[in-house]
Amino acid sequence: MKFSVAPSFSLSGNIKVAGDKSISHRSVIFGAIAEGVTRVAGILEGEDVIATMNAFRKMGIEIEKQDESGDYLIHGKGLNGLQAPEGPLDMGNSGTAFRLMAGLLCGQPWTTLMTGDESLNQRPMERIITPLSLMGAKIESENGMPPIILNPVDSLTAINYTTPMASAQVKSAVLLAGLNARGRTSVTEHAVTRDHTERMLTGFGYEVDTIENPQGKTLSLEGGGRLFARDIHVPADLSSAAFFMVAALISRDSEILLEKVGINPTRNGVIPVLLRMGADILLENKRTVGGEPIADVRVKSSSLTGCSILKSDVDLAIDEIPVIAVAAACAEGVTRITGAEELRVKESDRIHSVVQGLRALGVEVDEQPDGMTITGGKIHSGSVESYHDHRISMAFAIAGIVACGPVEVLGCENVATSFPGFGDLARSVGIDLQQLE
Ligand code: S3P
């Protein structure tokens, strides 16, 4: 499937983007191992989260869809209630599902084979295999990538682990393994990463200790406790909202209101970065729902200026860098992004994908090992390869609205992993986007 986008302006509308992917995965995972029925409102029905649901269904968890608005009931069976799945667990395109589930399942008394699609099967897993093996997990992997086999173990042993890279997935995998470990597991991180796991564990009644110091944060939990079902309201995903934020900023005479967007401070870096570039963004009606801060985000057309984006920004905006790069291409002056090497191991090598895409549209851009330097200017008509990466597809669809002529983005089928309905929503605010087979 490909997108074909024609120049568009006067974008407007009040819209609600799809549910938060990180929170949706975690609501299924924690709902499944909690005692009782967890009701989840507004879950993301993207392919990634459906892969997580199907994995739990294979392990004997009943997950019921209530209605079309994304309300689900998860019939949790407690920390020891999962059954051995028949056959492999296929996590599709989802690194989050794979790494978090490996953490949860490596302490079970049965063998689990975990695999993924072509992209996921090329992503690094030694970052979780290393700490989980230190806990006593018996993991087989040919080359440090999926597929992996989790062999049965009697029990895991708690460790004190410092994550070598900024990664919420690694932190979460160790904490999830810690639930099934003897003793107190701790994870120290030196960079801020999204804290949905620790927030949600607390929400499910599981005690997590946090010690913050200037060098970072240490989280710890005691294995063998209990989680109790609760109601969860999944906010709209800031990572999905970011495409429409940039759309409104770069197209003339535009104003879009994005409703009920999660603005969790451990991952809302796209907002301060765009504000630094001169964006007109207002956070209205800020409130906390189900333990997560949300707001309605009003965005208007703005004249943007290039800026420096450092590792500390990237850590808080890891999934939004592709669309920030598009904003930078439309800004006056130079934007330099550094400290972004983690982007090379996402659904595609996102530094390479963004650089190639911008070049295909005539933008001046230099690639560096840890980032890129973009000189703002005109976006030309052209054809962009998405490398089957959902966020690259959507970022370049947005670039298309300010190009001098039509922009084609190839390989967009994976948009459904995180943002089903992206095309319809884009058209509803006035973006001239077609999906072609
Ligand atoms: C996620 C963590 C991030 C992010 C991903 C979702 C999560 O990955 O890029 O889309 O839900 O924990 P890393 O932990 O690899 O940085």
The strand order across the widest sheet is 24-25-1-26
CATH class of the largest domain: Alpha Beta
Oligomer: single chain
List low-confidence stretches: none
**Number of contiguous helices:** 14
Bound molecules: shikimate-3-phosphate
Task: List the topology elements.
Layout: E1 2-6, E2 12-15, H1 21-33, E3 35-41, H2 47-58, E4 62-65, E5 72-77, E6 89-90, H3 95-105, E7 112-115, H4 126-134, E8 138-141, E9 148-151, E10 156-157, E11 160-162, H5 168-179, E12 181-182, E13 184-189, H6 196-203, E14 209-213, E15 216-222, E16 231-233, H7 238-250, E17 255-262, H8 270-276, E18 280-289, E19 292-300, E20 308-309, H9 311-316, H10 321-329, E21 334-337, H11 350-360, E22 364-368, E23 371-375, E24 382-385, H12 390-400, E25 407-410, H13 415-418, H14 422-428, E26 432-436
Parallel strand pairs: 2-17, 3-16, 6-7, 10-12, 11-13, 20-21, 24-25
Antiparallel strand pairs: 1-25, 1-26, 3-5, 4-5, 7-9, 8-9, 13-15, 14-15, 17-19, 18-19, 21-23, 22-23
The site of shikimate-3-phosphate (S3P) has 10 residues, from helix 5.
Structure description:
The protein has 2 domains: 2-19 and 235-436, Enolpyruvate transferase domain (UDP-n-acetylglucosamine1-carboxyvinyl-transferase, Chain), CATH 3.65.10; 21-233, Alpha-beta prism (UDP-n-acetylglucosamine1-carboxyvinyl-transferase, Chain). The chain is 30% helix and 28% strand. The protein is built from 14 helices and 26 strands. It has helices at residues 21-33, 47-58, 95-105, 126-134, 168-179, 196-203, 238-250, 270-276, 311-316, 321-329, 350-360, 390-400, 415-418, 422-428, and strands at 2-6, 12-15, 35-41, 62-65, 72-77, 89-90, 112-115, 138-141, 148-151, 156-157, 160-162, 181-182, 184-189, 209-213, 216-222, 231-233, 255-262, 280-289, 292-300, 308-309, 334-337, 364-368, 371-375, 382-385, 407-410, 432-436. The longest helix has 13 residues, at 21-33. The chain starts with a strand and ends with a strand.
